Each structure stands twice: as structure tokens, then as C-alpha cells.
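Hi support team,

I've been running sequence recovery on a batch of backbones for a student project. Most finish fine, but this one hangs at about 90% for roughly twenty minutes before it completes. I'm not sure whether the input is malformed or the queue is just slow. I've pasted the C-alpha cells below so you can try to reproduce it. Let me know if you need the job ID as well.

Thanks,
M.K.
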């Protein structure tokens, strides 16, 4: 017979012995052994907690499963069951590599600390005594602040002055940090509405992990810590309760029972009982619905005392019955029960039962996800794999993971063809490919995986690229008759002030022999200026300029002086596809292959001008067409500029050139030119009125939202706190994407805050100054916008914003959204296309993985005069050593088929002359 306590100590000894070896053998070599022992340790702790210190008769491991299951029914021990679940997937199915095991050990450190604390506090056992010997690679710049925050959390947790507030929030992210032997959490709260701004996020700290799958109500305390010569405001959460939005529960009922199903409100006793159960046990709606019949009946007796007519009973009993049957549609229902979001659920709903999905009221578009959940999205919603682990068993979907890996590697490497030697964690790749392809929804065979000549790729991705290159080759066949002669005549006109020989030569040949032209160039080399020149020359032709983001479109609108040019995003263009003579696509590196194929297929233009820099931020989706085009298109189509105009600062130019070409002396240039240092109090000292701080993300201590608070502390004007945000007169602001006052106040318009006045507790009036020329007539047709004055090059405007209220499912009105953000700091992505006199870039350890070569290059080239990068020497070394020039050019020469016979070997059919007559008026 086996004794749980003896087994527990044996497993613990094995783990501790392995940790002791770290000092001599290194973390990578030892981590694999530690991860291998952890599952046994977790199992024996569960057994001891359930059965105590006594010999176990019968099947020990069968009883172990029961013990682990019991752990999942209590919020205090639920982490043990989840930890065991993850360990089973890793240890039971394959032996992780040393690198993988090292990453897993760091990921599991939170669980190990919680396990150690649980064993000591609840079981009276001392385990994992040497856990602190595991090196964590924590950011030394954050450690001091984390210690201070931990002290504040401990003070508030011992005060017991809990007051749950009524506003609901989603927990967008929860990240652990460690102080001594304790785990604390940094979390981001967002208002639980169907839509909200990314600037409405609230950074909070707690001693417990809050659930990220349901909305919660919280008890908060405001305090502050000292650092870098300023006071940093900190919000502590000392209690929370699950509070699922009733509209989400009602839409789940509609999925099961249809649009006329019973209606639920938050006033139902059964609703409150359900929320209490979920708070105290940590169980999800999916967990409850999947309970065995006897346990389910017992739970329902606790929460649905009002009988079968109760909406809570309708939801859970219908879900239990459906999932017990294992019908088609189960995967969709499991996910939506596990992580309901009102807008997501509404996108999937339909008014009639769907026989393909078990007669659930779901659209056909849900079927691909139901078949292959680990590599497919729901309608309008990308599902995080971590969320799927909570509700859908991954074991039957190994082929999904292969497809997911190939797709992710394709996007990350920006390369179409992946060597099969890089995909080593799958047993039989060809068998998995056959399984995946055969299970695809009949309209999804563009997602077929192909394994040929030692490479893996997605069939549809290759097909899209083939169509793009063929379409561009076709456009390159002929140009505009009489173009060069008319261009030379225009250049001789006295009103033409163009004196840049590089741009003159480019203009003369732009569309002389081709209908498509590419403008490549590094940052600040005058690409947009060249576009302006083309527009001035072809002033009488209809033009349409498009870009992927609203900031980029608004930048084009400001820089292109042409009344005969319309501006819109790529998405809006593809939705409307208007006709034009000249289509201009800016920031082409951010345009994905699928969108570019649609642009070419639309064929609603006569001339195509493509502009961008292959070294700046790339497309979020797969997009390598712009960098590859040079390998296929004739030289007459290609115009490349390399003379920088944005700055005359030799040090900046030297750094830009070194980074762009990944020179080995980047670090030396950074140091010799004094561009870099650890984070210090100089970050809050403004060197210039036209200065910006760039960050990589919105969340975290050094994310955009918190950095705005830190930098705002340098503004000594009185603070006004409203709706969880702080405003001060003199704050720099940046307008966001909003229809309320658009296009007068457009996305990325800079300004400053001049005044705030509370009209009531639910309404705030703002006065702003913006650098635009406007009159009272300019604002007459904008409801709620008041013109005040124009002076010193700025227009003064006033408007009010109401406090948003949760109307359970209704959209928040435009008048409830503050149309601007306090903008001492902005994201690198939002700054693309903009330039500033002074740029400060903050890089911390937690964003190292996100600093690609293109992101870093884009960030440093926003500066005209001053640049300073705040990062640790370790972060600098890790990031610079990771830089490499993208390998997408190999796709042009790698030819498994070879890259479609018709692309390499067939010449493109000769196009007809573009039906455009160039007209010029002197």
C-alpha cells in the first residue's frame, strides 16, 4: 500500500535535488528533470489533501484522479487541478527539449510558489524549500517597484476594509510577479462594455489572480509609491466577485433555445447564487454544464431554487443536456460558455436552428471552428489558444497544432516556405497533414497544408502570392503614351519648383512604360513628397490614396495637396471599391497578401502607385508581396530613394543606416552618441515641446497608459479625476478614431488640454486647443462641438462627454467616449508615419520579444533632432543580437513546385494600353 505523505516527500526530494543542481549544471539542463518530476508532486499533494496521512488501498492512480477532480471544485485549490492538467499535456505526451523545459519551468514558477504556500498554510508541510534558487531573469528596473507595491498590497489586505463597487470590468491581462516567496499580480481592467477604447484600461495590483474569462466587480484602493523622482499612483484590488453580464447569459440562452427564450436580469436570486458559486469555486459555466449528472443536479439545487422556469436553470440544464450528447456545435458552445463576450456571441447568433451544428442557433460560419477549434477563428473573433485549453480537450487535435504552427511561423518569419527540419515536435507530419486537410470545411481548402521538397507551406498563401505577382507583371507590360513628353513639358513650366534630380528622373519614367510603379525608400527619404509630385503632375486625373491604418490615411490627407484626391483605409476601399484613374497605396509593408490580391483583382484603377519601406513595421497578417516584388518586376517599375531629408543630425543618420543594415557596430554607435541609458528620472524631463515617449504596449508598469500617468506627474497643474482617468490643464493630447467630430478632429491630430469642468457627476466638459485653422462655420454641423476662438495658430473648441453606463448589451454612445487620449506617450505603431523633434523610447524586459528589427527601426526613425532609448544593458544585448534582415527573398528562389510553373516559366500576357489620357493645364 502507498502512503500519500511518503510519496509526496519522495517527489519533493527529487524536485529539490534537481534544483540544487542548477548551480553546477545550468538552468537548461536541469529544467527538463524538474518538469518531469512536477506532475508526481502535484498528484501526491492532491492525494494528501484528500485522504491524509494513511496507507491507500486499491488503485492509487484512480483515486488520484478523484483527488485532482476535488481540487477543481474550490477556488483555493483550483490552481492545483489546472497545473496538473498542463503538466499532463507536457510530460505525458512528449519529452520537452531543454529549451522548452526551461521556458516551462519559468512559466510554472507561479504555480510552484502557490503550491509551496498552500502546502504550508493548509497542510502544514514544508516543500520546495530551495525554490528561490531558480533564476528568474527579472528586470532589475522593475524589482524595486514591485517590492514597494507588494508592501502596499499587504497593508491593504490586512485592513479588511472591502467595499465592492458596482461597475463591471473585464480582466484583460493578469501577469504574476514575485517578491520573496509570495506571488502578486499586475492586471489590466477594462470597462465591461461591448466596445471601449484601449486607453480606458486601468492598471491594478492584487495578491490573487482574477479570472479573465468573465466580467468582475472589484474593491479598489488608491495609493502611491515613489520612484524616479516622482510619485507613481497605484491602484490595489483587495477583493473581487464574478459578475457575468446578464446580456451575455441571455445570448447564451438564445444559442440553445432561440430568440424567444426566457429573459434573465441581475435581480434574479438564482443569478446571484450562480455568481457566488463561480466566485467561490472558480468553476466556469462550461465546467458546471459538463458535471456528471448527479453532481450537476446537486449544484442546480443550490443555485436554481425557483424551479425549471428559472432562466439560469434553462441555460445550464440545456447546456448540460446538449454537451452530454456530444453533438456537432459542442466546441462552439463550450468556448462561449467558458468565455462569453456579448459582441462575440451576437456575431455567431442566428434566428433559426442550424442542423449542421446540432440545431443550435448558430451561423454556418461557426462550423469551421467547431471542426478544428485549435487553428480556426469564430466569426469576427480570433480565439486565444490559452482560452481553449480551459474548455476543449486538445488531444484529438494534434493536426490543428501543426497547422497553427505553420501559420504562425509563416507570419513571424514573413516567409512562405518553412523547412520541415524546423518543425520537429510532431511525430508524423504527412499523416497529420492528411488528417487536417480532410477535415477542413468544404469552403476552406485554401488552408490545405502542403509538404514538398523538404518544405511546408499553406496552399492558399502560395496561390495568393502567385496571383499578386502575375497581376503586377501584367500591369508592368505597358505604360501611358505621351507620358514622358508631357512630363518634360510640365517640368519646364516656370511654376514647377522641383529641383531634386533624383525625383525628377523618377517622375519622367514613372508611368512611361508601365502601369504600376514602386517607390521604395528608408524613413525620411521623401517618399510622400514624391507622391505629392506625381499628384501635382497628374492633377486632372482622379486619384485615390489608401493605407492600412487611420493614422496613415490622415497623414496622407495632411501631406498630399490635391483636391482631386480621395483618402480612405484599405478596408474601406475593399468594401466600396470605387473607380479612379490612379490608385496610391501607402505603407505597403503593412498591407497583407490577401488584401493586396483583392486590390489587384478589383481592377478599378488605370495606374497603380505602390509606396513603402520594407524595413518598417510589417503587416499583422502575412504580407511579403511588397518585399518580393523587386525580385520579379522589371527595373522600369522600381524607384528607390536613399537620401534622408527628415534630419541633418549626423549621429542619427549613422544610427539609422547601421540599424537598417544590421551593422555589427550598432551598440558602439548607441553608446558613443549617447543614445542609450537605463531608465532614470530624465524620462519625465521634456527636452522639447515637440517630444514624444514611445512604448511597445498599453499595459504594464511601463506601458503607455501607466507611462502617461508617470509623465503627467511632471505637470504641476491641478489634477481632475473623472471616470477612472486623470486630466490636467496643459496635458498633450492625441485624438483617437471617432466619428463624433470627424473629419474636423481626425485620428492622430495633436492638441493640448486647456480646461475641464464637471457639469455634473456624470458629465465632464473639455476645452482643447488644436493646431488647425477653423471658424465658427466649420463646427456648425458637429452636434455638441462649440467654437471658442482662434489665436496663435490654434483653434479653441469645447465639448462634453457623459459617463458611460452599463445598459446591459447596448452600445456605448459616441457622446460617452472621450475622443482623445492624454498623450505624453504613444505606441510605436501609432507613431508610424509621424515625426517628432525629440523621441524617447522605453524598452523593458517584458516587451523584449516584441521588439523586432522593423519595430525598432520604425521607432528610432521618428526623431528629427533628439533620440534616447531607455533599456537595460541585458535588454539591449538581447534585442540587438536578435536582429536580422528578413529572409523573405528566399521565397523568390525557393521553388518546391517551382513556385508555380506558370509564374516562373510563362510570360505574362501583354496588357492593353491603359485607357487614360494624361491631361495637363499650364
Amino acid at each position: 500500500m502507498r502512503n500519500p505523505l511518503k510519496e509526496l516527500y519522495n517527489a519533493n526530494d527529487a524536485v529539490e535535488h534537481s534544483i540544487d543542481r542548477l548551480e553546477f549544471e545550468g538552468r537548461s539542463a536541469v529544467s527538463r528533470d524538474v518538469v518531469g518530476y512536477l506532475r508526481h508532486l502535484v498528484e501526491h499533494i492532491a492525494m494528501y489533501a484528500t485522504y491524509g496521512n494513511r496507507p491507500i488501498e486499491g488503485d492509487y492512480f484512480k483515486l488520484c484522479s478523484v483527488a485532482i477532480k476535488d481540487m477543481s471544485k474550490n477556488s483555493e485549490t483550483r490552481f492545483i487541478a489546472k497545473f496538473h492538467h498542463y503538466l499532463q499535456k507536457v510530460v505525458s505526451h512528449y519529452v520537452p527539449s531543454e529549451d522548452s523545459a526551461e521556458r516551462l519551468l519559468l512559466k510554472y514558477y507561479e504555480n510552484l510558489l502557490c503550491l509551496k504556500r498552500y502546502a504550508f498554510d493548509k497542510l502544514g508541510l514544508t516543500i520546495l524549500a530551495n525554490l528561490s534558487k531558480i533564476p528568474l531573469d527579472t528586470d532589475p528596473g522593475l524589482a524595486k517597484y514591485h517590492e514597494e507595491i507588494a508592501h502596499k498590497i499587504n497593508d491593504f489586505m490586512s485592513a479588511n476594509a472591502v467595499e465592492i463597487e458596482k461597475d463591471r470590468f473585464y480582466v484583460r491581462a493578469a501577469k504574476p510577479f514575485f517578491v520573496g516567496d509570495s506571488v502578486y499580480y499586475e492586471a489590466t481592467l477594462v470597462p465591461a462594455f461591448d466596445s471601449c477604447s484601449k486607453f480606458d484600461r486601468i492598471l491594478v495590483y492584487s495578491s490573487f489572480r482574477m479570472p479573465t474569462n468573465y466580467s468582475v466587480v472589484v474593491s479598489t484602493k488608491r495609493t502611491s509609491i515613489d520612484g524616479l523622482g516622482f510619485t507613481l499612483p497605484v491602484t490595489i484590488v483587495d477583493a473581487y466577485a464574478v459578475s457575468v453580464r446578464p446580456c451575455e447569459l441571455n445570448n447564451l440562452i438564445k444559442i440553445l433555445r432561440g430568440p424567444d427564450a426566457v429573459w434573465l436580469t441581475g435581480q434574479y436570486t438564482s443569478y446571484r447564487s450562480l455568481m457566488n458559486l463561480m466566485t467561490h469555486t472558480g468553476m466556469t459555466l462550461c465546467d458546471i454544464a459538463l458535471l456528471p449528472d448527479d453532481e450537476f443536479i446537486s449544484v442546480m439545487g443550490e443555485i436554481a431554487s425557483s424551479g425549471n422556469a428559472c432562466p439560469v436553470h434553462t441555460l445550464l440544464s440545456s447546456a448540460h443536456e446538449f454537451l452530454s450528447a456530444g453533438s456537432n456545435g459542442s466546441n462552439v458552445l463550450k468556448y462561449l460558455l467558458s468565455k462569453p463576450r456579448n459582441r462575440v456571441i451576437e456575431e455567431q447568433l442566428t434566428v433559426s436552428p442550424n442542423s449542421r451544428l446540432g440545431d443550435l442557433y448558430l451561423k454556418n460560419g461557426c462550423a469551421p471552428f467547431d471542426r478544428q477549434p485549435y487553428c480556426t477563428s469564430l466569426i469576427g473573433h480570433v480565439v486565444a489558444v490559452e482560452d481553449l485549453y480551459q474548455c476543449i480537450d486538445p488531444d484529438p487535435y494534434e493536426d490543428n497544432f501543426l497547422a497553427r504552427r505553420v501559420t504562425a511561423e509563416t507570419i513571424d518569419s514573413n516567409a512562405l516556405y518553412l523547412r520541415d527540419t524546423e518543425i520537429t515536435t510532431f511525430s508524423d507530419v504527412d499523416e497529420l497533414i492528411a488528417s487536417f486537410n480532410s477535415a477542413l470545411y468544404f469552403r476552406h481548402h485554401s488552408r490545405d497544408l502542403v509538404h514538398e521538397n523538404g518544405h511546408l507551406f499553406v496552399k492558399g498563401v502560395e496561390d495568393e502570392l502567385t496571383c499578386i505577382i502575375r497581376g503586377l507583371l501584367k500591369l508592368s507590360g505597358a505604360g501611358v503614351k505621351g507620358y514622358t513628353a508631357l512630363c518634360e513639358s510640365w517640368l519646364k513650366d516656370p511654376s514647377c519648383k522641383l529641383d531634386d534630380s533624383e525625383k525628377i528622373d523618377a517622375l519622367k519614367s514613372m508611368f512611361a512604360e508601365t502601369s504600376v510603379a514602386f517607390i521604395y525608400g528608408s524613413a525620411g527619404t521623401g517618399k510622400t513628397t514624391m507622391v505629392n509630385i506625381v499628384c501635382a503632375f497628374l492633377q486632372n486625373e482622379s486619384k485615390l490614396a489608401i493605407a492600412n491604418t487611420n493614422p496613415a490615411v490622415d497623414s496622407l490627407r495632411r501631406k498630399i495637396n490635391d483636391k482631386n484626391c480621395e483618402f480612405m483605409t484599405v478596408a474601406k476601399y475593399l468594401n466600396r471599391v470605387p473607380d479612379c484613374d490612379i490608385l496610391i497605396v501607402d505603407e505597403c509593408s503593412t498591407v497583407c497578401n490577401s488584401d493586396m490580391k483583392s486590390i489587384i483583382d478589383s481592377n478599378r484603377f488605370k495606374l497603380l502607385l505602390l509606396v513603402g519601406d520594407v524595413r518598417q513595421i510589417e503587416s499583422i497578417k502575412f504580407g511579403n508581396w511588397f518585399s518580393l516584388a523587386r525580385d520579379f518586376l522589371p527595373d522600369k517599375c522600381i524607384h528607390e530613394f536613399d537620401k534622408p531629408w527628415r534630419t541633418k543630425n549626423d549621429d542619427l543618420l549613422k544610427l539609422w543606416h547601421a540599424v537598417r543594415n544590421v551593422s555589427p557596430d550598432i551598440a558602439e554607435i548607441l553608446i558613443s552618441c549617447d543614445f542609450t541609458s537605463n531608465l532614470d528620472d530624465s524620462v519625465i524631463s521634456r527636452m522639447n515641446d515637440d517630444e514624444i515617449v514611445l512604448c511597445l504596449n498599453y499595459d504594464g508598469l511601463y506601458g503607455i497608459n501607466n507611462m502617461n500617468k508617470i509623465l503627467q506627474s511632471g505637470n504641476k497643474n491641478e489634477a481632475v479625476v473623472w471616470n477612472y482617468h486623470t486630466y490636467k490643464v496643459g496635458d498633450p493630447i492625441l485624438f483617437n478614431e471617432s466619428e463624433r467630430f470627424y473629419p474636423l478632429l481626425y485620428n492622430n491630430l495633436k492638441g493640448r488640454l486647456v480646461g475641464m469642468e464637471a457639469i455634473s457627476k456624470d458629465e465632464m466638459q473639455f476645452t482643447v486647443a488644436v493646431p488647425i485653422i477653423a471658424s465658427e462655420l466649420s463646427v456648425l454641423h458637429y452636434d455638441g462641438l462649440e467654437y471658442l476662438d482662434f489665436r496663435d495658430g490654434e483653434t479653441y473648441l469645447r465639448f462634453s462627454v457623459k459617463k458611460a453606463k452599463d445598459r446591459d448589451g447596448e452600445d456605448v454612445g459616441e457622446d460617452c467616449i472621450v475622443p482623445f487620449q492624454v498623450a505624453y506617450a504613444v505606441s510605436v505603431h501609432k507613431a508610424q508615419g509621424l515625426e517628432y523633434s525629440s523621441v524617447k523610447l522605453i524598452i523593458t524586459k517584458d516587451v523584449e520579444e516584441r521588439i523586432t528589427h522593423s519595430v525598432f527601426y520604425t521607432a528610432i526613425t521618428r526623431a528629427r533632432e533628439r533620440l534616447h532609448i531607455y533599456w537595460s544593458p541585458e535588454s539591449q544585448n538581447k534585442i540587438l543580437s536578435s536582429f536580422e534582415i528578413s529572409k523573405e527573398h528566399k521565397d523568390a528562389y525557393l521553388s518546391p513546385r517551382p513556385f508555380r510553373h506558370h509564374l516562373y516559366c510563362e510570360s505574362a500576357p501583354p496588357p492593353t494600353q491603359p485607357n487614360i489620357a494624361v491631361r495637363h493645364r499650364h
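--
Follow-up from support: It reproduced on our side and the slowdown came from queue contention, not your input. Residues 651 and 673 are 6 Å apart (CA to CA). No action needed from you.
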